[in-house]
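Backbone-to-sequence.
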C-alpha cells in the first residue's frame, strides 16, 4: 500500500529530474543555505560558529583510517 509520503517523494523526484544540471546544483546550494540558516536559528549562533560546530560533529563521527593510525602510532 502506498502512502501520501510515497507519492510526494515520487513527485519531488520527478520534478528534480526535469531540472537542468545547473538548476539542480543551484537547488542543492539553496537547500544547504536554508538548512544552515535554520541550524543557526535553532542553536542561537552566527553562520561561522554554526559551520564550525557542524564540521566538528562531522569529524567526531568518523572512524579513523587504519593507514593513518599506522603513520601516527
Amino acid at each position: 500500500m502506498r502512502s501520501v509520503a510515497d507519492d510526494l517523494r515520487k513527485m519531488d523526484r520527478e520534478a528534480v529530474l526535469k531540472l537542468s544540471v545547473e538548476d539542480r546544483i543551484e537547488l542543492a546550494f539553496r537547500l544547504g543555505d536554508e538548512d544552515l540558516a535554520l541550524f543557526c536559528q535553532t542553536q542561537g549562533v552566527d553562520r561561522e560558529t554554526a559551520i564550525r560546530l557542524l564540521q566538528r560533529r562531522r569529524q567526531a563521527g568518523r572512524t579513523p583510517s587504519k593507514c593513518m593510525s599506522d603513520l601516527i602510532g
